[in-house]
Protein backbone atom coordinates (compact mmCIF):
# COMPACT_ATOMS: atom_id res chain seq x y z
CA UNK A 1 0.00 0.00 0.00
CA UNK A 2 1.29 3.48 -0.87
CA UNK A 3 1.10 6.21 1.76
CA UNK A 4 1.43 9.73 0.33
CA UNK A 5 3.45 12.39 2.08
CA UNK A 6 2.73 16.09 1.77
CA UNK A 7 5.32 18.73 2.66
CA UNK A 8 4.75 22.40 3.39
CA UNK A 9 8.10 24.16 3.64
CA UNK A 10 10.19 22.02 5.97
CA UNK A 11 7.28 20.48 7.85
CA UNK A 12 5.94 16.95 7.37
CA UNK A 13 2.16 16.81 7.34
CA UNK A 14 1.99 13.04 7.30
CA UNK A 15 1.01 11.53 10.62
CA UNK A 16 3.47 8.60 10.73
CA UNK A 17 7.18 9.36 10.87
CA UNK A 18 8.04 5.91 9.48
CA UNK A 19 6.14 6.59 6.27
CA UNK A 20 7.84 9.97 5.89
CA UNK A 21 11.28 8.42 6.47
CA UNK A 22 10.64 5.82 3.78
CA UNK A 23 9.50 8.46 1.32
CA UNK A 24 12.69 10.41 2.05
CA UNK A 25 14.74 7.32 1.16
CA UNK A 26 16.32 6.71 4.57
CA UNK A 27 18.40 3.55 4.99
CA UNK A 28 18.25 2.30 8.60
CA UNK A 29 21.67 0.59 8.47
CA UNK A 30 23.89 1.79 11.31
CA UNK A 31 20.97 2.77 13.55
CA UNK A 32 20.82 -0.35 15.76
CA UNK A 33 21.24 0.29 19.48
CA UNK A 34 24.43 -1.19 20.95
CA UNK A 35 23.76 -1.73 24.67
CA UNK A 36 26.24 -3.49 26.93
CA UNK A 37 23.32 -5.23 28.64
CA UNK A 38 19.53 -5.48 28.42
CA UNK A 39 17.05 -6.21 31.22
CA UNK A 40 13.53 -7.27 30.23
CA UNK A 41 10.37 -7.63 32.32
CA UNK A 42 6.96 -8.73 31.04
CA UNK A 43 4.51 -6.62 33.06
CA UNK A 44 1.14 -5.01 32.23
CA UNK A 45 1.34 -1.76 30.31
CA UNK A 46 0.14 0.31 33.27
CA UNK A 47 3.32 -0.69 35.11
CA UNK A 48 5.81 -0.19 32.29
CA UNK A 49 7.01 3.20 33.47
CA UNK A 50 7.81 1.78 36.92
CA UNK A 51 10.45 -0.44 35.33
CA UNK A 52 11.69 1.89 32.58
CA UNK A 53 11.67 5.43 33.97
CA UNK A 54 13.83 6.12 37.02
CA UNK A 55 11.53 8.86 38.32
CA UNK A 56 8.67 6.33 38.59
CA UNK A 57 10.66 3.53 40.23
CA UNK A 58 10.45 2.78 43.94
CA UNK A 59 13.00 4.59 46.15
CA UNK A 60 14.91 1.33 46.70
CA UNK A 61 15.25 0.69 42.96
CA UNK A 62 16.17 4.32 42.29
CA UNK A 63 19.03 4.03 44.79
CA UNK A 64 20.31 0.91 43.02
CA UNK A 65 20.09 2.47 39.56
CA UNK A 66 22.01 5.54 40.72
CA UNK A 67 24.71 3.33 42.23
CA UNK A 68 25.42 1.43 39.01
CA UNK A 69 28.45 2.40 36.93
CA UNK A 70 26.54 1.32 33.83
CA UNK A 71 22.75 0.98 33.70
CA UNK A 72 21.46 -1.71 31.33
CA UNK A 73 18.89 -0.87 28.69
CA UNK A 74 15.48 -1.46 30.26
CA UNK A 75 12.76 -3.01 28.11
CA UNK A 76 9.26 -3.95 29.14
CA UNK A 77 7.20 -6.58 27.36
CA UNK A 78 3.47 -7.18 27.17
CA UNK A 79 2.69 -10.31 29.24
CA UNK A 80 1.79 -13.45 27.28
CA UNK A 81 0.04 -16.33 29.11
CA UNK A 82 1.74 -18.83 26.81
CA UNK A 83 5.14 -17.70 28.07
CA UNK A 84 4.42 -17.13 31.79
CA UNK A 85 1.63 -18.53 34.01
CA UNK A 86 -0.64 -16.29 36.05
CA UNK A 87 1.08 -14.86 39.09
CA UNK A 88 4.55 -14.95 37.53
CA UNK A 89 6.61 -12.48 35.51
CA UNK A 90 8.94 -13.48 32.71
CA UNK A 91 12.26 -11.66 33.06
CA UNK A 92 15.63 -11.82 31.36
CA UNK A 93 19.04 -10.22 31.38
CA UNK A 94 21.22 -10.28 28.27
CA UNK A 95 24.86 -9.27 28.50
CA UNK A 96 26.77 -8.46 25.34
CA UNK A 97 29.73 -10.74 24.60
CA UNK A 98 31.98 -11.24 21.58
CA UNK A 99 29.67 -14.10 20.60
CA UNK A 100 26.47 -12.06 20.73
CA UNK A 101 24.24 -11.70 23.79
CA UNK A 102 24.37 -14.17 26.68
CA UNK A 103 20.81 -14.57 27.96
CA UNK A 104 19.59 -15.74 31.35
CA UNK A 105 15.83 -16.04 31.87
CA UNK A 106 13.60 -16.22 34.93
CA UNK A 107 10.00 -16.79 36.02
CA UNK A 108 9.53 -14.59 39.06
CA UNK A 109 6.60 -14.67 41.46
CA UNK A 110 4.79 -11.32 41.48
CA UNK A 111 5.42 -10.95 45.21
CA UNK A 112 9.19 -11.10 44.63
CA UNK A 113 9.35 -8.85 41.59
CA UNK A 114 11.00 -5.79 43.16
CA UNK A 115 13.80 -7.74 44.81
CA UNK A 116 14.31 -9.72 41.61
CA UNK A 117 14.40 -6.51 39.54
CA UNK A 118 17.14 -5.20 41.83
CA UNK A 119 19.02 -8.49 41.50
CA UNK A 120 18.78 -8.26 37.68
CA UNK A 121 20.21 -4.75 37.76
CA UNK A 122 23.03 -5.80 40.09
CA UNK A 123 23.67 -9.19 38.43
CA UNK A 124 23.05 -10.96 41.73
CA UNK A 125 22.79 -14.45 40.28
CA UNK A 126 22.60 -16.16 43.68
CA UNK A 127 19.44 -14.22 44.54
CA UNK A 128 17.97 -15.02 41.13
CA UNK A 129 18.86 -18.72 41.01
CA UNK A 130 15.53 -19.96 42.50
CA UNK A 131 13.69 -18.35 39.58
CA UNK A 132 15.99 -19.27 36.70
CA UNK A 133 14.52 -21.18 33.75
CA UNK A 134 15.87 -22.36 30.42
CA UNK A 135 15.98 -19.46 27.98
CA UNK A 136 13.96 -19.67 24.78
CA UNK A 137 15.95 -20.51 21.68
CA UNK A 138 15.03 -17.14 20.17
CA UNK A 139 13.08 -14.07 21.19
CA UNK A 140 11.78 -11.66 18.55
CA UNK A 141 10.72 -8.33 20.06
CA UNK A 142 8.43 -6.15 17.95
CA UNK A 143 7.92 -2.58 19.11
CA UNK A 144 4.19 -1.83 19.39
CA UNK A 145 4.60 1.08 21.82
CA UNK A 146 2.01 3.34 20.22
CA UNK A 147 1.97 5.84 23.09
CA UNK A 148 5.66 6.53 22.53
CA UNK A 149 5.04 7.07 18.82
CA UNK A 150 1.93 6.20 16.86
CA UNK A 151 3.97 4.64 14.03
CA UNK A 152 4.98 1.77 16.32
CA UNK A 153 1.40 0.99 17.32
CA UNK A 154 -0.18 1.30 13.89
CA UNK A 155 2.60 -0.39 11.88
CA UNK A 156 4.17 -2.64 14.50
CA UNK A 157 1.14 -4.45 15.88
CA UNK A 158 0.12 -6.16 12.60
CA UNK A 159 3.69 -7.47 12.21
CA UNK A 160 3.64 -8.76 15.79
CA UNK A 161 0.32 -10.57 15.21
CA UNK A 162 1.56 -12.13 11.98
CA UNK A 163 4.77 -13.40 13.55
CA UNK A 164 2.94 -14.60 16.68
CA UNK A 165 0.71 -16.74 14.49
CA UNK A 166 3.62 -18.09 12.42
CA UNK A 167 6.24 -18.85 15.08
CA UNK A 168 7.06 -22.42 16.04
CA UNK A 169 8.01 -23.84 19.43
CA UNK A 170 11.31 -22.50 20.72
CA UNK A 171 10.77 -19.01 19.29
CA UNK A 172 8.91 -16.46 21.38
CA UNK A 173 7.31 -13.37 19.84
CA UNK A 174 6.83 -10.43 22.19
CA UNK A 175 5.25 -6.98 22.06
CA UNK A 176 7.92 -4.60 23.30
CA UNK A 177 8.25 -1.10 24.66
CA UNK A 178 10.20 1.48 22.68
CA UNK A 179 13.44 0.02 21.28
CA UNK A 180 14.63 3.16 19.48
CA UNK A 181 14.35 4.29 15.88
CA UNK A 182 10.57 4.59 15.66
CA UNK A 183 10.95 6.40 12.34
CA UNK A 184 11.98 2.96 11.01
CA UNK A 185 8.80 1.26 12.26
CA UNK A 186 7.89 -1.54 12.25
CA UNK A 187 11.08 -2.39 14.19
CA UNK A 188 12.25 -5.74 15.56
CA UNK A 189 15.06 -7.08 17.74
CA UNK A 190 16.24 -10.68 17.24
CA UNK A 191 17.77 -12.11 20.44
CA UNK A 192 20.05 -13.65 21.54
CA UNK A 193 22.04 -12.90 18.37
CA UNK A 194 21.23 -9.22 18.70
CA UNK A 195 20.28 -8.11 15.19
CA UNK A 196 17.91 -5.22 14.61
CA UNK A 197 15.56 -4.59 11.68
CA UNK A 198 13.16 -1.89 10.54
CA UNK A 199 10.69 -0.94 7.79
CA UNK A 200 9.28 -4.46 8.05
CA UNK A 201 6.45 -5.97 6.07
CA UNK A 202 4.99 -9.46 6.39
CA UNK A 203 7.33 -10.96 3.79
CA UNK A 204 10.55 -9.64 5.33
CA UNK A 205 9.33 -10.44 8.85
CA UNK A 206 8.73 -14.06 7.83
CA UNK A 207 12.14 -14.22 6.17
CA UNK A 208 13.74 -13.09 9.44
CA UNK A 209 11.63 -15.51 11.48
CA UNK A 210 12.59 -18.54 9.39
CA UNK A 211 16.03 -17.24 8.30
CA UNK A 212 15.33 -18.20 4.71
CA UNK A 213 16.12 -16.62 1.36
CA UNK A 214 19.01 -14.41 0.47
CA UNK A 215 19.98 -11.92 3.14
CA UNK A 216 20.72 -9.48 0.31
CA UNK A 217 16.94 -9.03 0.15
CA UNK A 218 17.08 -7.42 3.60
CA UNK A 219 18.91 -4.33 2.38
CA UNK A 220 16.87 -1.35 3.43
CA UNK A 221 15.52 -3.32 6.40
CA UNK A 222 18.65 -4.13 8.42
CA UNK A 223 19.37 -1.62 11.18
CA UNK A 224 22.48 -3.48 12.27
CA UNK A 225 24.15 -5.91 14.63
CA UNK A 226 23.77 -4.72 18.22
CA UNK A 227 27.12 -6.18 19.23
CA UNK A 228 28.96 -3.37 17.44
CA UNK A 229 28.75 0.45 17.42
CA UNK A 230 27.11 2.44 14.64
CA UNK A 231 29.88 2.76 12.05
CA UNK A 232 31.05 -0.85 12.48
CA UNK A 233 27.46 -1.93 11.68
CA UNK A 234 28.00 -0.84 8.06
CA UNK A 235 30.82 -3.33 7.46
CA UNK A 236 29.23 -6.06 9.58
CA UNK A 237 25.96 -5.55 7.69
CA UNK A 238 27.65 -5.88 4.30
CA UNK A 239 29.27 -9.13 5.41
CA UNK A 240 25.82 -10.34 6.53
CA UNK A 241 24.40 -9.53 3.10
CA UNK A 242 27.27 -11.28 1.31
CA UNK A 243 27.65 -14.39 3.46
CA UNK A 244 24.06 -15.16 4.36
CA UNK A 245 22.43 -16.56 7.48
CA UNK A 246 25.49 -18.61 8.45
CA UNK A 247 27.18 -15.28 9.27
CA UNK A 248 24.81 -14.83 12.24
CA UNK A 249 26.39 -17.90 13.85
CA UNK A 250 29.94 -16.66 13.33
CA UNK A 251 31.88 -15.09 16.19
CA UNK A 252 32.74 -11.52 15.22
CA UNK A 253 35.10 -9.16 17.03
CA UNK A 254 35.72 -5.51 16.30
CA UNK A 255 39.46 -5.04 16.12
CA UNK A 256 39.82 -1.36 15.25
CA UNK A 257 37.57 1.65 14.88
CA UNK A 258 39.70 4.69 14.00
CA UNK A 259 37.57 7.79 13.53
CA UNK A 260 38.31 11.04 11.75
CA UNK A 261 36.36 13.48 13.88
CA UNK A 262 34.62 13.44 17.25
CA UNK A 263 31.69 11.13 17.87
CA UNK A 264 28.69 11.65 20.16
CA UNK A 265 25.92 9.37 21.31
CA UNK A 266 23.90 10.21 18.18
CA UNK A 267 26.48 10.21 15.38
CA UNK A 268 23.96 10.72 12.58
CA UNK A 269 22.48 13.83 14.15
CA UNK A 270 25.56 15.43 15.74
CA UNK A 271 26.50 18.95 14.68
CA UNK A 272 29.83 18.08 13.00
CA UNK A 273 29.66 14.79 11.08
CA UNK A 274 32.45 12.23 11.41
CA UNK A 275 34.25 12.25 8.06
CA UNK A 276 35.62 8.69 8.00
CA UNK A 277 35.59 5.57 10.16
CA UNK A 278 38.12 2.82 9.47
CA UNK A 279 36.75 -0.56 10.54
CA UNK A 280 38.34 -3.99 11.00
CA UNK A 281 36.30 -7.06 11.89
CA UNK A 282 37.82 -10.44 12.65
CA UNK A 283 35.59 -13.49 12.12
CA UNK A 284 36.46 -17.20 11.94
CA UNK A 285 40.16 -16.45 11.48
CA UNK A 286 39.53 -13.97 8.65
CA UNK A 287 40.09 -10.24 8.72
CA UNK A 288 37.81 -7.77 6.96
CA UNK A 289 38.45 -4.07 6.53
CA UNK A 290 36.35 -1.20 5.28
CA UNK A 291 35.98 2.56 5.44
CA UNK A 292 32.69 4.28 6.22
CA UNK A 293 32.67 7.68 4.55
CA UNK A 294 30.44 10.71 5.09
CA UNK A 295 28.32 11.39 2.01
CA UNK A 296 25.92 14.24 2.73
CA UNK A 297 23.50 15.73 5.21
CA UNK A 298 19.85 15.34 4.34
CA UNK A 299 16.52 15.73 6.08
CA UNK A 300 14.37 13.31 8.00
CA UNK A 301 11.62 13.34 10.61
CA UNK A 302 12.07 12.08 14.16
CA UNK A 303 8.48 11.80 15.39
CA UNK A 304 4.98 11.29 14.05
CA UNK A 305 2.59 14.19 13.69
CA UNK A 306 3.04 17.66 12.28
CA UNK A 307 6.69 18.19 13.12
CA UNK A 308 9.61 19.96 11.43
CA UNK A 309 12.15 18.00 9.42
CA UNK A 310 15.61 17.73 10.96
CA UNK A 311 19.08 17.12 9.55
CA UNK A 312 20.61 13.64 9.44
CA UNK A 313 24.01 12.59 8.10
CA UNK A 314 24.33 9.87 5.46
CA UNK A 315 27.27 7.47 5.16
CA UNK A 316 28.43 4.75 2.76
CA UNK A 317 30.83 1.81 3.05
CA UNK A 318 33.80 2.03 0.68
CA UNK A 319 37.00 0.07 -0.04
CA UNK A 320 35.95 -2.98 1.92
CA UNK A 321 36.98 -6.60 1.65
CA UNK A 322 38.95 -9.44 3.16
CA UNK A 323 42.66 -8.91 3.76
CA UNK A 324 45.44 -11.45 4.38
CA UNK A 325 46.34 -12.21 7.98
UniProtKB/TrEMBL annotation:
It holds the Pfam family Suc_Fer-like. Transmembrane segments: none annotated. InterPro entries: Aim32/Apd1-like, Thioredoxin-like_sf. It comes from the Bacteria. PANTHER family: ACTIN PATCHES DISTAL PROTEIN 1, SLL1203 PROTEIN. This is Sucrase ferredoxin. It comes from Deinococcus roseus.
